Each structure stands twice: as C-alpha cells, then as structure tokens.
Amino acid sequence: MKREIPLLIVFIGGLFMAIQFFVPDSRSEWVYEFVMDWTIIIGIFALALGIWSFVRVSVNKINRRQENWQYSIISLIGLFGMILFGSSVMGWLGAESVGLESFMFRQVFNNIIIPLHATTFSLLAFFMASAAFRAFRAHSLLATVLLFAALIVMLRFNPYLGPVGNLIGDAASWILNVPNMAAKRAIVIGIGLGMVATALKVILGIERGYMGSD
Amino acid sequence: MLKHIMSLMLVVMLMMTMSWAQEEAVSDSVPQAVPISPPTNVRAFDTPYDNGHSITLEWDLSADDPDGKGRVLSYRILRSDMPDGPFVDRGVAIPAGEHKHNDKGVKESDNENYFPKGKDFYYKVVAVSADGESESAIVGPVHSAGQFFNRGLSAVAIACLIFTVLTIYFIRKARRGAELYIRPLAGIDAVDEAIGRATEMGKPILYIMGLGTAADIATIASFTILGRVAKKVAEYQTSLIVPCYDPIVMTVAQETVKTGYYDAGRPDAYNEDDVFFLTNQQFAYVSGVNGIMVRQKPATNFYLGKFYAESLIMAETGNSINSIQIAGTDEVTQIPFFVVACDYTLIGEELYAASAYLGREPVLLGTLKAQDWAKACVLICIILGVLGAIAHQTWFTDLFKVIVSE
C-alpha cells in the first residue's frame, strides 16, 4: 500500500490533467487553478525545507572547519540579514518602512544583489567568446562548414560591407530559416514525443524514479 | 444730378441684394452631412471551444466602410440584458475594416468584468464616423455556454490517442520478451566511464539538475538518471554533490539518491548534506555552483534537466577545470552551448530516453520504440503535407489545424 496509493494518486492526477487540457469549460479551469494553487502552497512549505537544508549544510561546514568554511558564515549572514531587513522587526527598531520598502532591504538589494547578478550574467559574453573560439576551429569538414555558416550569420549585421552586405544578409537568412529551422523543428518534434512518452510512463506507473526505491 | 446719384445708389443696392440672395441660394444648395450607413447582418453567437464566458459578434461592414478606407472610423459594441435596453457601451473601439469581435469577460462573479454564463444578452453594433454614429438592428437574445470538449484540439487528441496505443502495444511486446534494438547513445555509454574516472582520481561527481521544477518533464527524466548515477556512485564508493535550485526538487532528489545508495547496498554511505538547497535565484545559483566547481574540482559534471542562460557559464567553468562533462536538456536554445562546452550532450529527447537506456528494462525500452514509430509517422505526414502543398492540395494539412481557446 505504501507504493500503491502514491501511484494511484499520480494516475488519477495525471489522467485528470491530461483530460483537462481538452476541456475548456470554466469548471474544468476552476479545478485546474485549484490544483495549481495547491502546488504553490506546497512550494512555500518546501521552501522552509530548502532553507533548513541550506542552514544545516552551512553550519556543519563551519563546525567541522571544512575547507573554505568562512564562505558559509557570509552566506548565513546574507540569509538572515535579508530576512531581518525585510521583516517587521525593523519597524520595532524605529525604521520608517518595513518589508520590501525597508530602507536597508532596498539598499542591499539594489546595491549588492542586483550588481552581483548583473556581473555573473555579464560573464556569459566572455564564456561565449571562449566557447566560440573552440567551436569554430576548422579541424574537420563539419567544423569548417560550421565556421563558415557562423561567419556568414555574424557578418550580416556588419554595416561596412556595402552591396556585399545584402548578399550576406540573404545567405544568413537562408541559413537561419531553412537548415537551422529544419534542425530545430526536428529536435522540437522529438522533444514533444519524448515528453508525451515520459508523461505516459509516469501516469502508467512505469517510470517510478521520482518515488524512490522500487 | 441728385436724381442720378439716387438712381445709381438704388441700382447698387439692388445688385447687392441680388448678390446676397444668390449667396444664400448657393449656401442653401450645399448638402447637409449624410448619416453613415449602419453595419448590417449582425450575428451574435456563443464563442466555440471556450470556457463559456464570451459571445462572438460578426457583422457586414457599413456601406461607408469599404475596407476601412471610408468614412467609418471605428465600431462600438453595445450590450443589454433587455431587448429594449438600456444598452451599455462595452468600451471597445474596433478599427474600421474589421467585422468580428469577441465580447469576453471573466468567470469570477466578484470581478467587474464578470461575464455571466447562460444569461440572455442583446447586442447592437455602432459605426462611428466624424459626422455621427449609426446603429445596427438589435440582435439577440444570445447566451454563452462552456464546452466540454475543445474540438479545435481534435488533431492533438487523436495524435495523443494513437501514440498512447503505440506505447502500450510496444510495452506489451517488450513484456512478452521481444528483442528491441535501441541505437547506442554516446553520452549514456560514457556515464560509467565518467564515474569510474572520478573514483580513480578520488574526486567528487557534481550533478546539476538545472532550473526546472519538479513538474518539468526534463527534471523528472533527470531524477531517474540521478537514481542510476547515485547507485553507481555508491557501488564505486565515490562522492556525489547535488546542489539544487528548487526546494521540491531537492526533497525528491534526496529521496532518489538515498534509494540509489540503498539499492547498491550502501545505505551507510549516504549523506543527506550531499543533496542540498543552494538558492532559487538564477545567477546566485550559478555563482554557487561555479564556486563548488572551482574549490572542489569535481572529476565529472552532469548537467541534466532544464537550463537557461546559466548553461554556458557553468559548462565553461567545468571545462576550465578539465572535468568530464555530460549534459542533456530539452531547451533547444541551450543545446548548442552544451555541445560546444561538454564532452557528451544528450540532445532533446535523448534526455528522456537516457533513463530507459541506463536501466535497460524492457518495458522502458518499449516506450522508446513507440517514440521511434511515432517519429516515422510524423515524417510521413510531413512528406505528404509537402507534396500536397506542391500540388495545391491543402486538405491534408488542414486536418492538423489546431484552434486553442483564448
């Protein structure tokens, strides 16, 4: 019974959601939204588990003086600091605004968190350059074809090519709209079928990896 | 002399009077603004394949609105729940030239835009011009109703049914012991080798499940692969690190890894802290994972699941520390990044196939065979569609038209 009941819930839930997709009536929509609301509620409870996991791992690292344990202290200060700045405790301490409007919360968010995110994202540009350098080495026939295709696609935005620019633009459009699009669609069709197959396996109880032991 | 002057003035006055009279006659002959023609043949009906909270209106354009280039500026919709009014403006200005409108509301009765289901309504369409407005005849009563099957999705439903039948057929065939050939996947064949390498080097294995939630199919596929990897890791007695982006994914991943260790007969080796929650901020997660990579230098990195812009940042960092990298995602835009930066990449559906391939269970292999047959069917349909289009026969492609309710 320990396995049968979850499998039955998955079967009924999965079947309902599959049928619901074809039923546009507002009652069907209502049930769908109800289920989605529960997903959000479960997610909120799970967040508490996530925070607990993070704190436990960090505290263990500090206690055992594992390598680079100092970073865990900074992580915990960041976590609890933001909770403190965002909570109403700041109001009791005399702050004019609390919650998301709290002065300290906004200062840390705008001047530390956002720049850190932007910095990490901007690394992508450099990684793209290094990855492109590796990918475009003409060490085989296919790699050479890839190199030429990439060159044409990249050159299409070059404003200094004059009349040749139009030819390159047309060639780039053809590459993107014909061979590239065909390959993309082939992958998407495969993904769609794979998704349906995986969903079927889950609904029918064939795929049980997410449930733990067989 | 005076007599002549008086006569002259009289003539001038007479001429001026005649001139004014002529001017008045001229001004009287300018036509007054002619009212524009109203829209005609207004039809109101329940919107098909919807949730039952809208009415669709169609009308023939006003005679003064030839393709939106005439005197008509726009159309307004008036609605009443009584045939004799009062009619209330629905607050939309439909551009001239258009002859269809979906009068749609919401299903929540406490919302100001609530559209009651099953209630009779009467409609008028008003043509608006600079010279005035002109109303159509009243049409109604009409009421909305929800449908229990979206016939616009018939093609999808039939395709799903065919695929389900195919899958069940091949699963039964596999259960009866039929030999099913599945083409080798280099990325999956390399899993054992990658875990063995990590064991030899005495370094951990990093398993990243991406930014997906537990509801994403890619993440579900990743759980199954994680279970197999955890079992191998336990058998080889090496260590596994699984930093998670989503708390629910973390909870399921902990259970999956624990099961892998139990299945390998090494429950004592399982450490709950190996599968942990990092953060649910995309770039903070990337920083955390990259930090783990740079500090712990894992011998093998798995990137299996749903990935977005962070894919290349992580894969390039892994590449820089010379890890063996195996990636797989169903995000088409991220696949090229993984192909460039990783040693092996599972492209699209191969991610879903990996779990069946790793397990080699006949039932799971049966679903792969069904996928192959379904792809063959899609290929045949594409060829027939292309041939039909060349021959100007669109009836075949029309069979696949999908209407999604708004």
Structure description:
- The complex is a heterodimer of chains A (214) and B (406).
- Chain A is mainly α.
- Chain A is extended.
- Chain B is built from eleven helices and 15 strands.
- In chain B, helix 4 packs parallel to helix 9, helix 6 runs parallel beside helix 7 and helix 9 runs antiparallel to helix 10.
The coarse silhouette of chain A is extended
Helix-strand string of chain A = HHHHHHH
Q: What share of residues of chain A is helical?
A: over 70%
- Amino-to-carboxy terminus distance of chain A: 13 Å
Number of strands of chain B: 15
Oligomer state equals heterodimer
Entry keywords:
A: 214 residues; mainly alpha; 77% helix; B: 406 residues; alpha/beta; six-stranded antiparallel beta sheet; six-stranded parallel beta sheet; 11 helices; 44% helix
